[in-house]
Amino acid sequence: MPKMKTHSGAKKRFRLTAKGKLRARHGMTSHILEKKSPKRKRKLEKALEVSKADQRRVKGLLLK
User: Fold this and answer.
1) Is the pLDDT of residue 64 over 80?
2) Assigned architecture for domain 8-62
3) Which residue ranges make up each domain of the chain?
4) What is the DSSP letter of 9?
5) What are phi and psi of 49, to 5 degrees?
6) pLDDT at position 1
7) What is the pTM of this model?
8) Beta carbons within 10 angstroms of residue 14's beta carbon
9) Distant-in-sequence, close-in-space partners of 26: CB < 8 Å, separation ≥ 6
10) Interval 22-56: pLDDT, tens
């Protein structure tokens, strides 16, 4: 039986921290940036922890 491969879309979008938390980028950051305030754009730059509801699904994609 061959090894299971990590989902290539997930490995580009999510990262596991040393403590096992899942980090992701914020949405709403790629276009229509003129109308967003600098403060809002700065806050969107920072990594986000994946919600509790999605963690099981994302870990399944990463840890195959």
Assistant:
1) no
2) Irregular (4.10)
3) 8-62
4) H
5) -85, 135
6) 84
7) 0.79
8) 19
9) 43, 44, 45, 46, 48
10) 999 999 999 999 999 999 999 999 999 999 999 99
